[in-house]
Amino acid sequence: MDKKEYTEQNEIRTLRPEQINRKHAVLSLRARxxxxxxxxxxxxxxxxxxxQNMFESYSGAYxxxxxxxxxxxxxxxxxxxxxEYSMYRVMIGLIDAGQFENGDIVEGTTKxxxxxKNPHSLIASARQAFExxxxxxxxxxxxxxxxxxxxxxxxxxxxxxxxxxxxxxGGKYDENVSIWENDIQGLCSMIQEYITQYIYYETINMEHLxxxxxxxxxxRMQGYLALLAMxxxxxxxxxxxxxxSITDPLRELRxxxxxxxxxxxxxxxxxxxxxxxxxxxxAFNQMSDRIRRLLDKTRQEQKNLRELxxxxxxxxxxxxxLYNTLDSIVWMAEGGNNRQVVEMTTDLSDFFRTVxxxxxxFVTIEEEESHIRSYLKIQKIRYEDIxxxxxxxxxxxxxxxxxxxxxxxxxxxxxxxxxKNKRGGGCILIRGYEDRSGLVFEIEDNGIGxxxxxxxxxxxxxxxxxxxxxxPIGNGGFGLHNVAQRVRIYxxxxxxxxxxxxxxxxxxxxxxxxxxxxx
Length: 519
Fold this sequence. Notes:
By secondary structure, the chain is of the alpha+beta class. It has helices at residues 3-13, 17-24, 29-91, 119-133, 141-169, 173-261, 275-316, 319-334, 338-356, 365-382, 408-419, 452-463, 477-491, and strands at 105-107, 114-116, 362-364, 387-393, 401-403, 426-435, 438-445, 496-502, 506-514.
């Protein structure tokens, strides 16, 4: 994977929604749904709270009136009767008024005993109820009636005190009768009348409250119905818009995917609108661009591969190599070395059989070994005095499949650039084995070797990418570059070719093919 592809792939992986927002100023689906929720929820919540507040206000006023009526009715029913009965018993002398200091007086011991209410307690209780407990509006009819009740209670209290004092002194029966008839009975009747009038006005207040509630309900309900209609219309429009913002881009994305699937690599999804769809469309478009680039790269690699294989085939069928081999065969035939002629002709035939190999791109390691052996046997006859070789391939990997003509260009490089230039000749050692990293091949010679400058130039050739211009260094320069490119194309990043060399010591090439097993 080149640097450009790596960068593009990471752009797809690291694409974030906020990047799409900055480019297209789009809103997320979550934001739109929250907006819709606020559009609907806030008006409806306000409407519900308004209705609740109205009912709470009415309920509070209603409860207050009902509590006042309850208190007033309680005294309207019992106050006059209890007060007159108690003071009548005092007037006729049947009870001792001093006993009221201990509270109510109980006459009798059975369950049918009569209770004579304490007049002072009755007056104090009524005053507390009408003055403190009952809520009233100052200056209202109810307030006027309550003030009348309180004034009567004050007068009644003075009359009660006078009657009780007379009873304690004795001999004032006629005066007590007059107080009973003129003051106590009259004041109790007036208090009862005031209470009745108070109840009447509170009842009128309740009717006013009910009428006010009806008017408010009618008025507010019209506003609430209008608000509800507006919320439904706006909510429906927003819902339809949000639905379209989801379905329309998805439909377009589906159509774009169908076009891409049918072979139209120019199809692109529209971005913008919904954030999530924009992220998906952006990734989809980047995927389409990458597919196009991968297809273009594949076509270019296939083209480069065909050119490499053609040039490699041309290198193998080199006129120079063929002429020299045929000259050697003629020379040996003229010398009467028929056995060597047969061997060299057979080796030449085996060599070109592997080169052609029926158009196959992969051969077994055993076939590759046979190809190298045929080549070295031919060269051994030509360079008998300076060339020696050894091939050590582990038997366990002989049936494994490798790229055709993987080792021969490196063996040829070892011969022409290592052994041939060394005085006295040398040896080429070819090894093949498998370790934890996968298949490994070594081509080692004890030839002339390379200095640091030459070694750097060879390593540069092994690193050249397909399509880069190559400046060959002497004969065989193309072979190294060819092998490196073909290994990179077929085996990918898991494969590599390493070289180590030392001047006047030798050179060693190592080919690592990884764990890939070709079938």
